[in-house]
Amino acid sequence: MSIRWPDGTSTDIPAGTSAGDALRHWNAQQTRLALAAILDGELIDLAHPLTHAGVLAPLLPDDKAGREVLQHSAAHLVAKAVTELIPDALPTDGPPTDEGFYYDFEMRPLTADELPALEAKIRETVRRKDRFERSEISKTEAEALFRHNPHKLGYIAKVPDGRPVSIYRTGTFTDLCRGPHVPDAGWLEGIHILGFSAVIPGTVSSGGAFQRVRGVAFPTRAELETYLKRRTEAEARDHRILGPRLELFTFSDEIPGFPFWNPKGMIVVRELEAFVREHLAEAGYSEIRTPLIYPQSIYETSGHWEHYRENMFLTTVDDRTFGLKPMNCPGAMLVFRSRSRSYRELPMRLAEFAPLHRLEASGTIHGLTRAREFVQDDAHVFVTEEQIPAEIRTLIEWVQRAMGTFHLEWTAELSTRPAKFLGTAETWDRAESMLKSVLDGAGLKYKISPGEGAFYGPKIDIHIRDSLGRSWQCGTIQLDYQLPDRFGLQYQGTDGTLHTPVVVHRVILGTWERFLGVFLEHCAGWLPPWLAPVQVRVLPVTERQVPRVTELAAEWRTAGLRVESTDSQDTLSKRIREAEVAHVPYIAVVGDREVAAGTVALRAHGQKGQRSLTPAQLVEQLRAKVATREYDP
RNA sequence: GCCGCGGUGGCUCAGUCGGUAGAGCGGCUCCUUGGUAAGGAGCAGGUCGAGGGUUCGAUUCCCUCCCGCGGCUCCA
Predict the structure, then answer these.
(1) pTM for this one?
(2) CB under 8 Å to A12, separation ≥6 — which residues?
(3) Is the CB of A362 under 7 A from strand B?
(4) Closest residue to B7 (CA, C1′)
(5) How do residues A317-337 score in pLDDT, each as one tens digit?
(6) pLDDT band at A208 (very low <50, low <70, confident <90, very high)
(7) Rounded Cα distance, A122 and A92, in Å
(8) Cα–Cα distance between A333 and A486 in angstroms, integer?
(9) Quick check: helix, strand or coil at residue A592?
(10) Which residues of A are catalytic?
(11) Nucleotide nearest to A575 (CA to C1')
(12) Which of A1, A70, A155, A278 shows the greatest Cβ crowding within 10 Å of its Cβ?
């Protein structure tokens, strides 16, 4: 029978030849690393016997599907080790993930001292190169085989009657599995357990928490080492370490989740605010300031009392219950409602940068990226339905521009109508297709999350990733058809009758806190000159130049630069090092030569060597970079 | 909130098989006047996360709580 290869050629192969042998026959060199095969678009094991003509291609570890086969095979080894060590453990599911893989078990909690034994078991299987052996059995046979495991029985029940069920045996361990898998455990030399934790059961319900063992796998030990090294380097960028070290912010054990912005961090926040405010002015926004605390009645109107109460900081005064606002919406609604409005005022764009408080669950707090108090670059835009597309388009452009300024990679996600929603399905459909067409029009690739929309309207979320690849939601653009109605907002239209506006809730950067947390990791603490709390540090070579340095520092400060100077107690090298460790982008050195020439020797981060320039040139160049918000010094 | 792990000067860490603690960096003072990532010396700084229990005696063992870290859930 004739097998066609990816290069377009074909070969006559005897029926019954395994996919692996066939591939080797075609091109032993190119298929050396193949861990599975693709037959007519379908993934198969290398051991799979070919029974009919078709197109056959190798599946390599670098392919997305190949990577998943590798990770998923690794998950089987973990399940094998766990069940050998703890026979009561019931394997549930073990899929590949973005980073690696995990396997969930219904079992008593694992402890850290069991980890070495687990790892030893896995290494043993790898060393023995246990084969992944596939077989197909009937549903009835499968039900008998997995009779002790309700989770597996659940999966079997979903298979249509009459269809065979495939199982994979690896040594003593047998798992229900679609496959394919790598040929044997020897392919998983670079397998590594990342950790374990309790997880809350998802679709399979059984009461208590499951145990999840997470890991990552590579074909070789060397690739694992590279990965672990990269991970260690990424950990060194952790904003929770960098922030306090650079004196940007701190936390106190007395009040977890509440950032303390130190003087240097406050400069960064103010610059971010200035960046956002500059655009607000261009885009026709006005800024408001409304109370931080509201009585229960307001939250009953807004719906927060019903939907968000357990996440709010509440207090009682004179027998009335008040809550710190978790969102800015109520204030904006009340400003809109404070007098009658005309269609001529729409779109009405009200921005507010107020501290918000959310009582986040204790286990979820995470430095700046998940705090209990934060400030959003928030605004509420009151529009007519016809005005929505143009407004959203402007916002998307804004996101693109802002993310470009910070050199951040980002992804967009469209969340659609949830099971429980307010309003009519037609309104939702219209809003969703409108958001889609704006995203398409902007040429953006985006993910659709069905049913993930807020109960009051669909939304577009903007995600960015931290140094360890964790994804954080920053910007969000949400359509709201409910809040204006709940607050009884109205405007007089051209027809002279009263209409209810639609509200667009929108943040671009998200919050100063989360955005800066992620961005600090992105730039490894080397903030661009326009954000750097100290832009220049001036160092005298010896005591003799101290007066000149003092003079320069004053001059530059007057010119609007953020400058620090040092005396000459330590050696020059030592002071250069201190400035580098403090992540100051520009270091200006002044010795006798510079005093005589009326120059400074400038060392800029990321550039080799120094260059000589006059103080006026430095001011001019740095101002230009700040004005255009250039990323690199 | 759930599971696991951790908490020793500002930071990074050593140590005590139960007899109340050390280093380096940082800080301060002095010496050094040095040309692009650590010059030298001295000094100060710790109720060993908090509370309770066991003990003649607890930083060390046990319990509870607090905080942190990883993950889950939720979210900007």
Answers:
(1) 0.92
(2) A1, A2, A3
(3) yes
(4) A253
(5) 999 999 999 999 999 999 999
(6) low
(7) 19
(8) 10
(9) helix
(10) 329, 358, 376, 378, 380, 459, 505
(11) B37
(12) A70
